[in-house]
Amino acid sequence: MNRILPLTNSNHIMSSDTQALNRAVVDALKRVAAPGGRGNIVSRGLISDVVTRDGKVYLSISVDPAEARGLEPMREAAERAVAGIVGAGNAVVSLTAEKPASQQAPQATQQPRPQRGGAVPGIDRIIAVASGKGGVGKSTTAVNLALALQALGVRVGLLDADIYGPSQPRLLGLKGKPELAGGKIMKPHEKFGLKVMSIGFLVEEDTPMIWRGPMVISALTQMLREVAWGDLDVLVVDMPPGTGDAQLTMAQQVPLAGAVIVSTPQDLALIDARKGINMFRRVEVPILGIIENMSYFLCPSCGTRSDIFGTGGAHQEAERLGVPFLGGVPLHMDIRESSDSGLPCVATDPEGSHATIYKDIAAGVLAALGAGAVPQAPKIVME
After folding, report:
1. What pTM was estimated for this model as a whole?
2. Which helix (H) or strand (E) holds 318?
3. Mapping DSSP to helix (H, G, I), strand (E, B) and coil, where does residue 64 land?
4. Rounded to an integer, what distance in angstroms lies between the CA atom of residue 367 and that of residue 297?
5. How far apart are alpha carbons 219 and 178 in whole angstroms?
6. Which residue, among 155, 192, 144, has the nearest Cα to 345 in the 3D structure?
7. How far apart are CA 133 and CA 128, in angstroms?
8. In which region does residue 345 sit, left (phi positive, over 0), alpha (psi from -120 to 50) or beta (all else)?
């Protein structure tokens, strides 16, 4: 049974005002019936975390994943109850999948299939760009892949799900809080025709995100499902690095059409990339392929190639695991400089050699998605 964690602010200071808000939130949640009408969600110990930040209250309700879809009315009731205290649009409630102890499988091979959340209206396919560890250039790859897909005639959005280290605002030269539509739905920022949402638009760049897992999931749920994405063929999700709770829950609760794994050729990075692939396979998310980033260094002065991190490691790993190798991206100063200045190379130098590499990778992603040839119209045909 979960206990109700103290309602804290982002600095973990329990002021008298916070304590009063804590009591008021708990009292409000006691009026929300638990599944089956047996008590309320507080007495049943279903509240796994409650956090407040900047006047907003985030909380998670732990439920049996097999029942998650049918419990949306309970989630909405809890959100309305808390919104009655903090105001409409300031309460974010998410369902966190958790198997009851009586249903825990004795062996890993006997675990039930995870239940993913329903499709997001207006979005045909969602793909994750992930890495087993940080520092491999995942975010730079994600934004250029999104722009490359767009250059191939696909309607694309980009969700920066890296809560602890959001990079897309800097990579795209974007800042400022998103506008609200209808009091709750956020309008994504746009740059180079790309619709973008990131936690980096809501907090200052140097603010540390000292959040527990459930609050991260609540924020991700809000940025995915409470954003006016419009009609998109593909939403590219820049995932947090690693294979922890946030990554696993995203993979379970978001209807992912597939995952793209980013790694360097280095053996150490490939070990972590392998973990990421195995995580997605465990939750039955197709692996669309591996991208080898920083594949080699090309000297801008003399043109000499140097294999700083080794050579061909990701290609060999893809063959060993039986997944597509999507291509290698060089370690080049032009990519670094364009990224730091908020001018990704695919958007600002679309005919350049680096943009061509990303477009080839994007074509491989479309092929892996089962979309066939590069579409002539901006709509991916669902088979």
Report:
1. 0.67
2. helix 313-321
3. coil
4. 28
5. 14
6. 144
7. 15
8. alpha
